[in-house]
Amino acid sequence: MKKSHILSLALSIVTCAGLLAGCTSNTSSASSSQEASSADTIKVGILAPLTGDAAQYGIAASNAAKLYFDQLNEAGGINGKTVEYILLDEKGQAADAVTAYNNLVEQGVTAIVGDVTTAPTVAVAVESASANMPMITGTATASTVTVDPDTGAVRSNVFRSCFIDPFQGEKMAAFAFEKLGAQTAAVLFNTGLDYSVGLKDAFVAKAEELGLEIVAVESYSNSDVDFKGQLTNISTKTPDVLFCPDYYQKVALIAPQASEVGLTATFLGGDGWDGSIEAITDAALIEGAYYCSGFSADDTSEAVQTFLSDYNTAYGEAPNMFSATTYDAAAILCDALKVAEDAGLTAGTDEYKAAVIEAIGNTDGEYVTGHFTYDDNNNPVKDAIIIQIVDGKYTFNCKF
Amino acid sequence: MGAAIREKGDSGTHRVSICVSPCIHLYYKYRKGRIYLMLIVSQLINGLQLGSIYALVALGYSMVYGIIMLLNFAHGDIIMVGGYVAMLTIAAGVNPIFAVVLAIAACMILAVVIEKVAYTPLRSSPRISLLITAIGVSFLLENLAQNIFGANAQPFPNNKIIKTSSLNIGGVQIGVTAIVTIVVSVISMVLLTFLVQKTKRGKAMRAVSEDMGAAQLMGINVNNTITFTFAVGSLLAGIGSILYCCTYPQVSPTMGSMLGLKAFVAAVLGGIGSIPGAMIGGFAIGLAEVLVRAVGLSDWTDGVVFAILIVVLLLRPTGLLGRPMTEKV
Question: A280–B158: do the CB atoms touch at under 8 Å?
Answer without folding.
Answer: no
